[in-house]
Amino acid sequence: MCALALLTLTVACSPGVQATQKQSPKSAPSSAKLVMPAQPPKTLASVGFVEDPEQLFSPTERGKIDTLLRNFEKSNLISIKLVTISDPEVTMDNFDQHNGLLLQSWSATHHYSEHCMTISISRSLRRMRIDFGAFVQKLLSNEEASAIIENVFKPSFKQSLYYKGTTDGVIALMDTIRKNISK
Description:
Elements: E1 50-51, H1 59-76, E2 79-84, H2 95-110, E3 116-122, E4 127-132, H3 134-137, H4 142-158, H5 162-181
Parallel strand pairs: 1-2, 2-3
Antiparallel strand pairs: 3-4
Helix pairs in contact: 1-5, 4-5
């Protein structure tokens, strides 16, 4: 959704005109409200961008990914949540649905779903998925996301290089979004 702000400013150029003078109906200033587009709130410091119950990353690696995602949110207003899946309730059949629910939950945390994105990775199921809101979809197509999964994430994952694959993949997603912003 786009919002257009209109501001009307009336300035008296004649030093003889006082603010208390009554104006004729033709010269009365219009009463317009300044409407600023809503900016999504930044994620609280206490909320983690990375959840790693599958323990694919060391604490240092989790911290580096978290910092990468926080910095991207600050500069591009897009919040990305990365979760590794170890829940036995999540199966091949409901993996995609689970990531969709994760997106809804992450969006509720931010009170704006259009600017959110979730990445789910499961080593045990050998699956990953990326979902995103409508605003992000304007900047990242499903085809671009799928190509990044196939060409960046998966080759490293096949070699059990989960930190490298995740970092390289997340950076590729961010670079694609930045490139599409500047178009």
